[in-house]
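S1.2 Input.
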Amino acid sequence: MQSLFIYNTLTRKKEEFKAINPPFAGLYVCGPTVYSDVHLGNCRTFISFDLIYRYLLHLGYKVRYVRNITDAGHLEGDRDEGDDKFAKKAKLEQLEPMEIVQKYTVGFRDIMREFNTLPPSIEPTATGHICEQIEMVKEIIKNGLAYEINGNVYFDVEKYSKGFNYGQLTNRKLEELLEGTRELGGQDEKRGRLDFALWIKAKSETIMRWPSPWGWGFPGWHIECSAMSRKYLGDTFDIHGGGMDLQATHHTNEIAQSQACYHKTPVNYWMHTNMLTVNGVRMSKSAGNGFLPGELFTGNHPLLEKGYAPMAVRFFMLQTHYRSTLDFSNEALQASEKGFERLMEAYKTLQSLKASANSSENIAAIQSKCYEAMNDDFNTSILIAHLFDAVRIINSANDGKLNLTQADIDLLKILYNDFVFDVLGLKAESGNERLDTALQKVMDLMLEIRSKAKTGKDFKLSDEIRDKLIAAGIQIKDTKEGTTWKV
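S1.3 Output.
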């Protein structure tokens, strides 16, 4: 198995990946909170970890990929304040909370299919694992690192910090964290400013509630991931991922809960994707520059000049390394659209290439460079640059400018299957298949008429057909083997 190096957020350096139980690898990614449509920041995270999942599979690992669905316990404020977001959304739309959950879970999965992401091995929900969360809270209380007040259970951060490094994931000391947190108000029942809820007492009007040793209530947001990752991947597992916005609070609290419960390091490698910007400005609702995947596909947004196909968007996202900021602009999207088309057109050309007796290119060297790029913390930007070296070779061979043997052509096909389709998860946009079939028939007819015109030396008609096809956006190319065309 090849040596794979990944950047570990916890240690802040690249480390060689060593699975706990090879060839098995455990991967947990914080999934969506399903009270609204999935936003592009989420999509970038899930596409990035789909790539990581795909590459681990490609290397021969048997991956258990767990991606949770948060459908309970997510309050409006990070300080365990405000309404439960699901209940609030349900009230606004006059629906049951679980109708909200179902609606946006289905929408999330539909979007993930559009982006051609593989489904996870397990997709557990918070509401389906209430018992596991309650048992974990009981264990943390037993270990003296949580306390109950009026039906609420809080994690004692300062007491935990006497034996563990609470700020290890963000490389911040407890004193710094305390300085950046406001003083407790007179009505706040927590003992410490950094303490967070493990279990929340239900209000009289709360619909989503469960019985517990502390009364009727619901779990805090952070405990769900600790409970579910432990259940399906064990006390310590290989990789935990999510967006960088989860580092400081959610993932920091996950580590604390898990260590407080069973005194083990829960995760060996922490991985985080970077943020999105639009024309250099951070994407957010308040800035008015945020758009949903559906708006990106249709172009139905003031900031978009047109709609962009899902595969072109996926290709655009993968052109930037997952730890780098990704900036959306119409110019960048359109450049990626053209690049994706070039990649797919070269694949079509590859199918009809004629082999030569000798070779003028080293395709095996390109293949090695592709592996080197992916083994260097999944560097897709470098990988794609090498794939375009292959595109150049394919087009040059098609133009008769260089020679490729049948072995070269076969290796180029393997390169596409392994890296373009399997690892990057790209596929040709099918569009309307009936329309594609009809266009093929029309083009066959037009080229047949043009061929007969040339045979009959009616060059005026032949040129007229060519020029009108070009004006319609269809390029044709005459070769010794015949005439080819593309849109």
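S1.4 Remarks. The chain has a mean pLDDT of 92.
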